[in-house]
Amino acid sequence: MEQQNSDLRKDPYIALRFPEFRSFLVMRFFLTIGYQIQGVILGWYVYSLTKDPLSLGLIGLAEAVPAIGIALYGGYIADKSNKKTLLNKVVGLILLSSTVMFVVTLPNVTLSLSQSLLITIIYCMIFVNGIARGFYAPTAFSMMAMIIPREHYPNSSTWNSSAWQTASIAGPALGGLLYGFSGIHQTFIVVLICITISFVGTFFLKSRPSTFVKTGSMLKSVSEGLKFVFKTKMLVGALSLDLFSVFFGGAVALIPVIATEILHVGATEFGIMRAMPAAGAVITMLLMTRFSPMGKPWRNLLFAVTGFGISIICYGLSRNFYLTLFFLFLEGAFDSVSVIIRSTILQLLTPDDMRGRVSAVNSMFIGSSNEIGQFESGLTAKLMRTVPAVVFGGCMTLVVSGVTWFKTKKLIPLTLEDIQKS
Q1: What is the pLDDT of residue 33?
Q2: Residues contacting residue 346 through CB under 8 Å, at least 6 positions apart
């Protein structure tokens, strides 16, 4: 029996052998690919209207503010609600906001709106998406933990992240190509099809009633999630490291500016550039199903963040399109290692009845740091110009990695088994 269990743990496809997990991946894949296409075309479209890099940063801010503001409440609701029902509502809200953006970008509607009103509506719908994200992240995190047995969390985290990254490859590439050949409103039709498939997919998941036991007020319940994270040294260390590295390393948001003003390429090349970080990530993640980074996770996490920072600096200094693609590929490869390690640690150390609230804290640290990092990149690009802003972000990422290494030396030699026993 022990030999059989050992073989199962070594099986790189073990998580995929659970039918409901496959359904979950399909739901997440189509939501992500639609979301990624939408993000790419909105960034290009808004920048083409404004010619202002700060407008790209404001896209990130419009999504991050509600996502951060509602995250803890979203985690509380995720813990006490039926997971399937909540996913239905959240994906439905995203579908509604995308439908509104599709309508306002139709040629006849666009002509009847002023530029400022059009951009305001887009920002408002991005704000709605941020609200939805505040509920989606903890709900999906809790749902996945209920689908897969605990001993297979590392494998399921790898496949879950791989599905996300695969969609992140296809999304930017499709978004750039479709936008370049057919325009924004036709591309939005593809977005709506993808999100509709995801919405229908939520109905194929099993109902997941809450295991939450209320022990006090909502405020007390929310504070329990915060206290758990901040008293668990490895959790707060991993979240803080990723928060600041992504905050200063959000240079991917400036790809529209790099593409048009530095490399002088069009929408198709822009789509390829947006796809390269995800291409590096998914290839690395597929390798990690065979070669796990969890031998000494904290050491490997610090190595990955350092490589991430170096690749950003090189990307900012590059003047060659193909060299830029290579550095974007490396950026995604290093980032994927960080994602796998952090998500596995989070799954292993979080009690079942607190998954929503802990995931909400994670969303505040990590999920929204991408959008805040996007705003930081847009603001610094406006103040410092594009290339200095990218190089500054990469240098600050290296500083964050160095400080974290110095502060957490005791965690560096720990193995995955040591973490599970702690």
Answers
A1: 92
A2: 141, 235, 238, 358, 359, 362
